[in-house]
Amino acid sequence: MDSAASPLDPNQILAKNGIRPTKIRKAIARLLFDGHDKHVTVENVIDMARNSEIKTSVASVYNTLNQFAAAGLLRRVVVEQGRTFFDTNLSDHHHFYFEDEQRLEDIPDGTIKLQSIPKLPYGRRIKSIGVTIRV
Amino acid sequence: MDSAASPLDPNQILAKNGIRPTKIRKAIARLLFDGHDKHVTVENVIDMARNSEIKTSVASVYNTLNQFAAAGLLRRVVVEQGRTFFDTNLSDHHHFYFEDEQRLEDIPDGTIKLQSIPKLPYGRRIKSIGVTIRV
DNA sequence: ATAGCTGCAAATGCTTTGCAAGGCC
DNA sequence: GGCCTTGCAAAGCATTTGCAGCTAT
């Protein structure tokens, strides 16, 4: 369900989420939302940009990814200190983490499930649930 | 099973794990292994030490906690970038994370369970499974 | 013209490292 | 005495921030 990838229109994605479609943002959106699920770091995006002849800066990549995350276009995933991943897969899912490669991979939907949810602390509601299987 | 807390002997703990029982290490062990489960940051330990009239330094706290973690006396837990927790509870368990307080709390044993484990990537074995429920 | 974006460089926050001095067997 | 530990300060990373110049409307 991922092999038949169809890039989405960056302008539409940004417009739909109230983000002004500037040159850099469209360029990064094009890199990320190509129809394939990805887990990227800031460094990855900088490299991808370089390989695509996109001229930008570290600060702008941070700005853009943070903004995308805030708008719900990306999900932040932290599995190790000092390294933030941004996940383009927004569906409810979990991850394998390959420690030796420092790489994330989606756990296929439906192959992992919580049998029971504990009673929540008083006055709290679930904001998210994250399962990471280190392999 | 946590309310009836009995501090363990720091010397024994360290000896059993092949760590030389120096003054600082024993002091920090005494702070951490008092029989109550804890999730501490380096900063926490520095504060605890200060309140206990223990003189030490940031570097030594890092050294000590890292060493304890390497020896399996503590478990590293990362839920947010830029802040590492050390968990004194070594049993198989999971966490609530209170985002507003940046605080971890154990999920009571048996109240959460994985119904199914996905097939692992080829040639891999599970090193650990972590479930974090953000509340 | 003007509001917002970009990108450099400086700053921040956590963590690690280098190294001299000190402590312990 | 000799090896390990301690702790200060400096270095190292990832990330954020300040701000001047630029861009697009």
Question: Explain this structure to me?
Answer:
Helix content of chain A is 30%, strand content 25%. Chain A has 135 residues and is α+β, with helices and mostly antiparallel strands. Chain A has one domain: Arc Repressor Mutant, subunit A (Orthogonal Bundle), CATH 1.10.10.10. A 3-stranded antiparallel beta sheet of chain A has the order 1-3-2. In chain A, strands 5-4-7 form a 3-stranded mixed beta sheet, with no helix packed on it. In chain A, helix 1 (10-16) packs across helix 2 and helix 3 (42-51) crosses helix 4 (58-71). The A-B interface holds A 78-84, 96, 98-99, 105, 107-108, 111-121, 124-135 and B 78-84, 96, 98-99, 105, 107-108, 111-121, 124-135. Strand 6 (113-116) of chain A pairs antiparallel with strand 6 (113-116) of chain B, so a sheet runs across the interface. Chain A binds a DNA duplex (25 and 25 nucleotides) through residues 20, 22-25, 41-43, 56-60, 62-63, 66, 81-84.
Summarize the structure.
2 copies of one chain form a homodimer. Chain A is 30% helix and 25% strand.
